[in-house]
Amino acid sequence: MASKFERFASAGKGNGLRATHEIHAGELLYTAEPLACCVSNTCAKDFCHSCFSRRKTLLRCSQCKVARYCDVTCQKQAWSDHKRECKCLRSLHPRIPTDSVRLAARIIFRLLSPSQTSPGLCSLEEHESHLCDMGEERREGLSQLSSMLQLYIQQEVPNITQELPTVDPLSLLAKLTCNCFTISDGELREIGVGLYPSMSLLNHDCRPSCVMLFEGETLHLRAVRDMQPAEELTISYIGTLAPTRDRRTQLEEQYHFTCQCQRCTTADMDPMMLCGEEKAWAPLREAIPRLENWQTQAYWSELLYECGSLLDPLDGDVPAVPDCNVYRLRVIDLALDACINLAEWDKALAYGTITLEPYRQYYPDPHPAHAIQLMRVAKLQHFLVHLGDAQHTLRLAYDIMKVTHGNQHPLTSDLIRKLEECRAELDRA
Predict the structure, then answer these.
(1) Between 304 and which of 230, 271, 313, 338 could a Cys-Cys bridge form, CB atoms 3.0 to 4.6 Å apart?
(2) 3-state per-residue secondary structure call for 27-86
(3) Which residues span the domain enclosing 379?
(4) Which residues are CB-contacts of 203 (< 8 A; sequence separation ≥ 6)?
(5) Residue 102: which CATH number?
(6) pLDDT of residue 307 exceeding 60
(7) Position 202 in a domain
């Protein structure tokens, strides 16, 4: 794949990537394999630790009892990365280190085998740790993780300073907090974490010019709008469906910079995101962490009941919150998820339909989150035999997904099959 971008010194941002040729929306600009990656602990029982596929039944490593694989083929392919990790996991059993510690260990094992690493636009050594920018509490947390890392790898690397003099465990963990990427499936659900050193050069924008998606552990960088030579390539480090203050706070705490993108400096979306009276939407904002925890724990009945109470309060003195308010929108999304898991299809479709107009307004450029929301609603419409609506919604989703995912992505192929099913059923009707 001929490169259409180059590394450059970005004013006020350090390094960055910029276009060297004209780029068109939907172009696949880069494909990368990670220096190291691992399946997240929360997903460890559901995803293959080699190909990152979701499977109902997985074979468990007979030694460490942690790693799981589709079959013997996946297990063999993973062995070069897992063999050292396996001994370390056994040494800590039944404790399992955090994702960041496991990822850091895998990076160390890779660095001990230089033949397995390949140069790119940026090396691990060039990454900033930002330790000097961190508060005492965060540094203390990283220090504890560093101690855990050294204990974890002791079986394989008893003296890291001797075997890898350039690697400091504390600095490595700090670099990971700023530079690793969440690996997700096509529907943006978290699977794992990985370090892709060259892609860490991409700077942030709350209205980015590119998006990252994954197939397994392979990263794909795609343009979501046309770009001219010398224009900077950007991605969003965080979910942008949040008011300016929330976005800036998250970026400052995790990435140590104050976002100066156009969306942040103008706060142009805030009037819509925070519409309604604060006394009405503040309880929604405060409830979201608790609701998201119930979602993680799969407490679907409790989640749906609480969402319903928040969305339709019994107190007649509480003014209504518009559906485009981001906190109400998040609660509606959580209610939609609960309804799907409880097989309450009509209610799920009602909630899903409410979200479509706010999503359209909040994502003016092609964005995976918008396409996936459309596809979720379209599947409900199709299941409930609203065939004309389903066909229309699937077409809207495809117009976005062909740009963000590309026609070869498995999720796009699934969408095209659904669209063909709708057409066939409408022809028979």
Answers:
(1) 338
(2) CEEEEECCCEEEECHHHCCCECCCCCCECCCCEECCCCCCCEECCHHHHHHHHHHHHHHH
(3) 275-428
(4) 10, 13, 16, 17, 232, 234, 235
(5) 1.10.220.160
(6) yes
(7) no
